[in-house]
Amino acid sequence: MKKNVSRGALFAICFMLVVVLSGTVAVYAVDVEHQAGEKIIDEYEYISSASTNLSISGDMATASAKITRKSSADRVKITMNLQQKKNNEWNTVKSWGKNSSSRVTYIEKTKTVSGGLYRVYTKVITYTGDDSETIKIYSKTKKH
Questions:
Q1: Which of 67, 89, 90, 138 has the smallest number of CB atoms closer than 10 Å to its CB?
Q2: Hey, CA dihedral for 77, 81, 56, 49, is it positive or negative?
Q3: Which domain of life does this protein belong to (predicted)?
């Protein structure tokens, strides 16, 4: 004996499938953005884009960050941290800072490293008058 599936039930199943798959894609897209070390920022008022990177060659780690502020902002404060993972925790090995009123600010620093897993964590505060915005970005992890 054959059972007929109603159009309403079929529509409901298809709709649920679309909702589930759409949620999966959105989560994946956010993860890719975070792992890439770069954010193109539409939702922030004072920051246009921000990126941070790490490269390791031999025993030398090079950490960098590039911040583009919107014209409505006065200045940026960048704190760039080279971090090493030990005992499942990220510990800051070296920290550098830079204040700038330039529209585009770039910082690049080097540090000798030993074996382990490393990343760069960069905190950016953008100021305008008495107001400010803060973002945090991370580079891809690199193994030495």
A1: 89
A2: negative
A3: Bacteria
Q: What is the pLDDT of residues 94-107, one digit of tens each?
A: 999 999 999 999 99
CA distance 120 to 12: 46
The full set of domain ranges for the chain reads 1-36, 38-143
pTM of the entire structure?
0.71
The answer regarding whether domain 38-143 maps to CATH 2.60.120.1060 reads no
Tens digits of per-residue pLDDT, 108-132? Answer: 999 999 989 999 999 999 999 999 9
